[in-house]
User: Fold this.
Amino acid sequence: MRVGIGLPSTIAGVNGHTIIEWARRAEERPFTSLAVIDRYVYDSYEPFVALAAAAAVTTRLRLATTIVAGPLRNAALLAKSAASVDALSAGRLVLGLAVGAREDDYRVANVDYHRRGKILNDQLATLRSLWESGAIGPRLVRPRGPEILIGGLSDQAFSRAARYADGYVHGGGPPRAFARAADRARAAWRDAGRPGLPQIWGQGYFALGEEAAAKGAAYLKDYYAFTGPFAEQIAAGLLTTTQGVVQYLRGYQDAGCTELVLFPGVAEPDQLDRLAEAVAAL
Amino acid sequence: MKALIIGGGPGGLYAALLLKKTHPVWDVTVVERNPPDATYGWGVVFSDRTLSSFREADYPSYREITNRFVIWDTIEVRYGGEAIRCGGNVFAGISRKVLLLLLQERCKHFGVRLKFLTEVRDLSECKGYDLIIAADGLNSIVRKAHAAHFKPALVLGKSKYTWLGTRKVFDAFTFPFRRNEHGLFQAHIYPNDGTASTFIVQCDPETWQRAGLDHATEAETVAYCERVFAEDLGGEPLLSNKSDWITFATVSNRNWWYQNIVLIGDSAHTADFTIGSGTKMAMEDSIALAAAFERYGDNVKAALNDFELERRPVVDSLQRAAAESNRYFENTPRYEHFEPMQFVYYLLTRSGRISYDELRRRDPSFVDATDRWFFEKTTGIATRNQRVVAPPPMLAPLGLRAVKLQNRVAVSCSATCQARDGIPDEAYTADLGNLALSGASLVLTEPLAIAPEGRITPGDNGLYRPEHVATWSRLTALVHDSGAFIAARLGHAGRRGATRPRNEGLDLPVLKGGWPLLSASAIPYLPNGPCPREMDRADMDRARDQHVRASQMANEAGFDMLELYFAHGYLIGSFISPLTNLRRDSYGGSLENRLSYPLEILEAVRAAWPKTKPLCVALTATDWARGGLEPGDASLIARIMKERGVDLFEVAAGQTVLESQPVYGPCFLATLSDQLRNEARILTMTGGNITSSDQVNNIVAAGRADLCVMEPPRLNTHYRIIGGATGNTD
Assistant:
């Protein structure tokens, strides 16, 4: 299992310098990817723009969206943004897509929330042909364009991953919940007759140290306030100790996770070192 | 804090006493419309796990309960002239009335106010409370009053059932199955205490009407049931207590709390009576609710939220198991051709919560007996009660014509999509060699193209050129050398042809070098994809002859078995599904018409394929799409095909059309296989993410399928390469 780290681009009030510096430091530590998440109605950065900045100061890390809510953008712009980041990073983009669960984002984007599944299906059906036909550019830097992952917990999501994507990305939670989703992802994959096994990515939040833990929990409650009761649950899952991180990594590894991305709950640069130590302890 | 509990059943009383116990200063009131000693229903049952949670929550009431209950660990099934017992399932039964009285006493002890003969008809009567707990049961007034917030759903079962009792004391959870001239009757009997037993009688609505029970008085119902279960009652009468015939309503709610109001027990959720968990769930809700208030004090919303987060996954899982149990009891006649051992094994594992391994942990001798029965049955060696050693069902042999499979596991090749002119590449040969060494008794190829225009991708392996015979001869010999059999799947892609290799995705049309597609009707698979041509009679003759030629080549190449791939919306599948066959000629319309061309192929192939070799057909059990094939259709189709010499059916689902509503999960095809196998009385093979021997044993022992397609194991951290260079351990 590979371990990646999230960019603090969705933590409120974080300045541009901090994000770029974070990416630079991540490159020097034993992480394999740098990931972003997507939110319109929040004090946060646009995911493709954040990854483009990260691309400029990194050469090695894979750059992943885990996830971008596809239907919030039109298919052509989505294809162009993804192809651009992939070209800027010399083929390091992993494009995670899902419908997202945030009605307020759909409202400001002026997209019908109730058609989100249909819209994502249509986008997936056209994404690769938009890239491969060369109609929109930039020219692909690898034959098939960026790798695609699909997120979500509905059977439709697993079906999309098996039909259109290179794998599945889980939304986070205890290893047991991940294991169940991973089983369904593999079941759908094999049922579609896809060769081998899908990539299966996991996610989690960390804020190591007492002070960071309190700030991180407050951030998660705020960021996920739109889920109502579940914000508490998500905040409770924050990894705040080395032991917690190690146990989480082991659980995910046993469940067949191929790449686990841990997102920061606070943007303090020492968090990168603390996480690197915890990962090294595995 | 002022708390009002509406409903003085076990859940309401238990919540009241636990809340008052942990918060003595709270003002806790229970209102109940009945008098203190009124009760409907007979006994309630708890598992050992539930009892230990009672012990932690409130020791004195736990002690009272355990002093009054009877405990037993046996399930007895009476079916087909045999009574078979399985142990290790610890249950405790107590009379509902005794339970209520002791909980009432405990409430009084802590100072809970109990108001009997008080009915809440309108929630506006309940002003001034900080917390309202709706423990008012199935027909909850509170749930109805705030239906807009709770968003309840009610699903009615099909069966009719009634609660009766008897003074006869049973020593096991007893399930008699009795068939008379009206139909099949089932009873669920369990001891309440040392002096009486609960006796629930269940039947399907048709049987119920034929027996005249739809207009029977209570006395007539009792008399009728006494006759049906005379053997089980041994002369003891049945007793009634408001024993109407009812249908079970499964209640679920999108939300369990709203403002300061929370639903617990039956008002929030019910689970089919055949799993017997109503009181248990209500009392476990009470424990979780009290624990949440211990954590959050008088922060009502936080506590109610915590309660729901804690309980919902548990309740969801129980409701899923209850739905499976209900499915079994509503379809029992489907399993009446089972011999008693298998019938009982199925009954015990019906809900999916107990697997083969778990059952062995509970009662090793029962599972040993199942193994012996299964082995004797499948080998035809009648040594009843003589045999000592028998392998588990997964390792029992299976005979299909002259082919004697050594075990119940098959493995399937993946298409590498690298073939040139239909000839497999090196990587495929290596894969096949590994699968032959896997220990599975049967290796299945991926669907091999019967013609170049029948390929799914340009790099598909095929059986259509003369040189293919020699190529496949080498590969079948490779498999035979390892002691396994090999089956060729034969397919024609139809409208799903000319796509890119599957490592890129499914059904992505090739960019160049495609070919014209054929299908039952001219409908493209993808909205903007290539449109197939509707097959005319000449096309049909050609495709039939291609099937026959491919099967002759398969025989010459040494394949032991043939599978005609009629599933997943490929060419022949497109004739069968009404979603893809819109023809107006004699090959479209009714199921009979839609089947006529597939049957023509089947008959032609069967005639060309040696009589000693088995023939399998892959069928779509459901299209997972509105207006498409459903499991009942598949059973009918399988029955017709069986008559034409098909020995085995592989079960598939979905992919007929692009937009569908799939259902994935552990062994998701096994349920479909179960229905197909036991409705049509055929042999089936099922896949669907089967990854462990526990799953194979369970599926095969329960008669859900005869052969399982297992996935290659996923190596994890338990696996390390020691000594050599660092290997990839994932």
